[in-house]
Amino acid sequence: MSLTESSAADIAKTASFASRHLATLSNAARNDALTALHRALLDNQDSILAANARDVETASRAAKNGNLNQSILKRLDLSRPGKYADMLQGILNVRDLDDPVGKVTLKTLLDDGLVLERVSCPIGVLLIIFEARPEVIANIAALSIKSGNAAILKGGKESTESFVAISEVISEAISNTQVPRSSIQLVKTRDVVSSLLAQDSLIDLAIPRGSNDLVRYVKDNTKIPVLGHADGLCCAYLHFDANPDIAVKVIVDSKTDYPAACNALETLLVHEDALKTAFPRVAEALLSRGVSLRCDMPSKAALVESLPASQADLLLDATDSDYDTEFLDLTLAVKTISSTHSPDSAAEVAIEHINIHSSKHTNIVITGSKEIAERFMNSVDSAGVFWNASTRFADGMRYGFGTEVGISTNKIHTRGPVGLDGLTIYKYLIRGNGHGAGDYFEGEGGKKWKHEKLSL
Amino acid sequence: MSLTESSAADIAKTASFASRHLATLSNAARNDALTALHRALLDNQDSILAANARDVETASRAAKNGNLNQSILKRLDLSRPGKYADMLQGILNVRDLDDPVGKVTLKTLLDDGLVLERVSCPIGVLLIIFEARPEVIANIAALSIKSGNAAILKGGKESTESFVAISEVISEAISNTQVPRSSIQLVKTRDVVSSLLAQDSLIDLAIPRGSNDLVRYVKDNTKIPVLGHADGLCCAYLHFDANPDIAVKVIVDSKTDYPAACNALETLLVHEDALKTAFPRVAEALLSRGVSLRCDMPSKAALVESLPASQADLLLDATDSDYDTEFLDLTLAVKTISSTHSPDSAAEVAIEHINIHSSKHTNIVITGSKEIAERFMNSVDSAGVFWNASTRFADGMRYGFGTEVGISTNKIHTRGPVGLDGLTIYKYLIRGNGHGAGDYFEGEGGKKWKHEKLSL
């Protein structure tokens, strides 16, 4: 075993041990740790912001030399107005959420004196790997402690100074509470990550937060279950009967509110009968906000006819691969959906396109028809399916979950924005009085099951 | 791409397509398919049993030559009294369970006219790989259809004839219903399995049912999430205050009711103060039922003192590896837990042993103390934790879930016996009226979230 491997095994073992103690703490004890965490981050704001300023300075130089993306620089900066306060408030918000642990979700009388309960409990050990955003450390630490999980955190290299400063404050703060200090461990070197990804017997869940490449790297290099999304290819289907005001509002917000987000719109499917009704107004609004439209032939033809030449000249031709591309930018692929058989058959074509090409993150329909909307919501296979509402609503805070751990496009465990519930599992408890299972059988002398649902 | 790979891709694509249609069907339509399935298996009982008899004959020859385990032969035989009737009844039981699809589990008013719902839905495509038991085909087909999932099934080679016969009846039966015929696909050749395990973009969940080796093979060879358990190393902790009658009843049932089952007891931890009270009676009862006891020194010494020589002579010495062994046979490892500091500290030692050595399947405590029991149930990390009740209760039928898909020792998604709920996930639906997310922000002019919980 190399030094890195043995270090990864030690980290994972310590975390596993801490997780078992943490799992037995009361909500009050976990909340006390969050209060201490909040206090300490408030008290140490100046030194943390000073450390962050050093990261920002290094990153600014890299950005000037073209070695770093401007958006990373922006995400890195904790001194932006309101950001530190939001981070602090986030900890209190998590603290004040309902306890996700110890919820009894099923209770059955199996037989006299033999009661089955299903009770929520922490998952165990989380491995969270994230990129630049330094406030994620506080956020994730709060969510982990509140849900009774131990967490191993690895941040991006651009935020090293901020990360070290925040992590020291966190360790110090929780060491004065009942939460074991090693419940939150911070890994500083990159080379330990691949060894940690090999600890699948001790680490229960990996959560990569960052670029598609990071998520793919994690998914491809571990047997630990991975929670997250590699892609956010979201689609909208504009039905022929859509109210143009609603269409403009929803599509412009979906595309332009934050184009780099995973829940931003990337593909617009337009019913052919909407090409000359709602669509030109939508296109005009998008073009006037600087969105490049990559159109197929019918949609381009319709716009060339209805838009002024100054705008029509901006239109681009779509290629097939555009419908499989997450642009993360002010670019939108447009595809026309023909309705050969009936106006409604187009909805089926749109649904099929989405089920094949979208990343099952968030997809929306804009229509005046409740029937079409319900069919769309029933048939589209994705974490979020919305009717006449922006894709950008797919977010834990907006859903009312408090802070979110991330957004999952997994088909098991937890899907969509992941709040505290996504960090819990359950166990089955039976309380008996000397019951053996062999006494229950059909026929003479066999005991019978009661299987009576008890109120929770 | 080889022929096998293209065939696996075709099977997975067809299943994915079928799953999307299946997901939109009503409970009544899915139930109609189960009724048809039941009817067809009843009508074709003779030909299916004839096919099964051919499998049994081949297997009997192999068993005689020492090339097949007797327990496989036993599991293979569908003509054993009640087995076929149980299989048929199982289909009706699944049909009559509550619909697991379309359950609204969260409803929130985000803002006026903007409502969020979380609704249960099928996972999509299941790949189920199982060994000899032919009745599993009917069982899994019923569970898949009821939960709205498409399933690809691969059975063991010993049950090929039974499997082909049942599969033809199933395909024929559902082809006359609204459930797409390719919702249940049956794979006959073994070489296609590894190619199917590579279809992680189309197959959503793999469920291996059978030996530890099978489960490990599947886990090691796919990126598809795997639901199941490789091991069933279950432990019991006998506290010093245990009622001897309860101890005998629970431990004998746990060990001897069905030793080859994953929920059979493998390790008994005995508080040192129980060595001369409850333990000798437990040991006597086990020995008289032919159980080999592999004892550590203190437990052996206690038994040598209290048991007649004829029984004491049967005792074996435990090695360290016995505490990590799933015997699946009439063998039990016994370990003494000393209580150096206080009687209660032994419970902590037992809990730590279990958290390290058990397979997190089912672990039990036998004690008269509610406090010790609750601490044990709170601290032991496993799918099932029971107080004064046999490990053998860990079973979907016994829990009242109807038929089970298997037992999961995963830490995410679903844990313990998996019923229909384990085959569903959910999606978030939003119904709006032209809402954009960019309108919601702190400060002047920003809309405010309502986040009002609505009744379900």
TrEMBL record, chains A, B:
Q: Which CDD domains does this one have? A: ALDH_F18-19_ProA-GPR
Sorted alphabetically, the keyword list is:
Amino-acid biosynthesis, NADP, Oxidoreductase, Proline biosynthesis
Name the GO terms of the biological process aspect. L-proline biosynthetic process
* MF terms (GO), sorted A to Z: glutamate-5-semialdehyde dehydrogenase activity; NADP binding
Q: Which domain of life is it from?
A: Eukaryota
Q: In which pathway does it act?
A: Amino-acid biosynthesis; L-proline biosynthesis; L-glutamate 5-semialdehyde from L-glutamate: step 2/2
**Per the UniProt record, which EC number(s) apply here?**
1.2.1.41
Q: Which InterPro entries match?
A: Ald_DH/histidinol_DH, Ald_DH_C, Ald_DH_N, Aldehyde_DH_dom, Glu-5-SA_DH, GPR_dom
Which residue numbers delimit the Aldehyde dehydrogenase domain? Answer: 4-286
Q: Which reaction does it catalyse?
A: L-glutamate 5-semialdehyde + phosphate + NADP(+) = L-glutamyl 5-phosphate + NADPH + H(+)
| Enzymatic class | oxidoreductase
**The family this protein is said to belong to:** Belongs to the gamma-glutamyl phosphate reductase family.
What role is this protein assigned?
Answer: Catalyzes the NADPH dependent reduction of L-gamma-glutamyl 5-phosphate into L-glutamate 5-semialdehyde and phosphate. The product spontaneously undergoes cyclization to form 1-pyrroline-5-carboxylate.
This protein's name: glutamate-5-semialdehyde dehydrogenase
Q: What is the lineage of its organism?
A: Eukaryota, Fungi, Dikarya, Ascomycota, Pezizomycotina
